[in-house]
Design a protein that fits this description.
This protein is mainly alpha-helical. Helices cover about 50% and strands about 0% of the residues.
Amino acid sequence: PKVNSSSSGDTVAGIDEFFSSYGYSLIIGNSNHNIEKEIELFKLFQEKRVDGIVLIATELTMAHHELIKKS
């Protein structure tokens, strides 16, 4: 989804507030409703070995499911 939409912005702000209270920082990837970009970002975050991924997907495809299973 687009980060600049009001609902996404509110969601991101809440997620950031919650995890910040536990000492985590938020790294955001904006797919702009592009499924291929979502997959690319998911793989990038896996490669960077982030502590966790919060996925707000445009649509959960089989590619998404496979990446989640591998995580």
